[in-house]
C-alpha cells in the first residue's frame, strides 16, 4: 500500500514466517531448518527464484521483486487491457515464468551462478527471450519512454537474477527518488 504521503507499507504476510520459528507439516513432523517454503507470495507477484523452486536460497529480494511488480502495475496504461503484469488465465507457475521471461528475458547459467541448482530450471523447457530489453518494458508501459530514471528503477527491481536485483538501499537511493528530492527514512516495523 502507498499512502497519500508516499509511504510504502508492505502488507499481507499471511503465509510468511520467521526463519527462527519451527515449522511443522500437517501430520506434526518438524520441517528441517534449512528448508523454506516455495508457497510464498501471491503467484502473480512471486519472484522467479521461488517459481523455479528455490527452497533454500531466497532472501528479502523476493519482496523487492514484488514491489517492482506493483510499481509496474501502477504504470500500465489505463485502457483496461491489462491490469496485472503477470496475470495468466491458469494458476500456473510455468506460465507465470514464461510471462516473466517474455518481459525481462530468459536467464542463463553463465550469468546466474545458482540457476542450474534450482529444481524447476530446465534450460530446454524455456524459450529464449532477450535479456533486459528496455523496448519490451517501454512497449508494456509507454510512460517509461519519457522517464529514464523510472525505467532504470523498474529494471533494477524486476531483475530476474536475484544476485543482480536491487537491494533496499540501491532502490531507495536510486536517481528516480533522489532527483525528486526524496530522502529515505530508515525502514521500520510497525506494531501489529
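Sequence proposed for the structure above (192 residues):
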Amino acid at each position: 500500500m502507498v499512502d497519500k504521503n508516499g509511504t510504502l507499507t508492505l502488507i499481507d504476510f499471511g503465509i510468511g514466517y520467521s526463519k527462527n520459528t519451527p515449522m511443522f507439516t500437517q501430520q506434526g513432523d518438524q520441517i528441517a531448518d534449512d528448508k523454506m517454503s516455495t508457497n510464498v507470495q501471491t503467484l502473480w507477484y512471486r519472484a522467479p527464484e521461488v517459481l523455479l523452486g528455490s527452497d533454500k536460497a531466497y532472501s528479502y529480494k523476493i519482496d523487492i521483486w514484488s514491489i517492482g511488480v506493483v510499481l509496474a502495475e501502477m504504470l500500465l496504461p489505463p485502457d483496461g487491457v491489462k491490469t496485472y503484469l503477470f496475470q495468466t488465465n491458469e494458476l500456473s507457475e510455468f506460465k507465470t515464468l514464461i510471462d516473466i521471461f517474455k518481459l525481462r528475458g530468459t536467464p542463463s547459467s553463465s550469468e546466474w551462478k545458482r540457476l542450474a541448482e534450482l529444481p524447476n530450471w530446465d534450460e530446454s523447457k524455456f524459450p529464449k527471450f532477450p535479456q533486459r530489453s528496455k523496448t519490451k518494458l517501454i512497449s508494456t508501459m509507454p510512460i517509461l519512454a519519457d522517464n529514464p530514471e523510472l525505467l532504470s528503477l523498474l529494471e533494477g527491481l524486476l531483475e530476474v537474477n536475484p544476485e543482480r536485483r536491487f537491494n533496499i538501499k540501491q532502490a531507495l537511493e536510486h536517481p528516480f527518488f533522489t532527483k525528486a528530492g526524496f530522502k529515505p527514512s530508515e525502514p521500520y516495523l510497525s506494531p501489529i
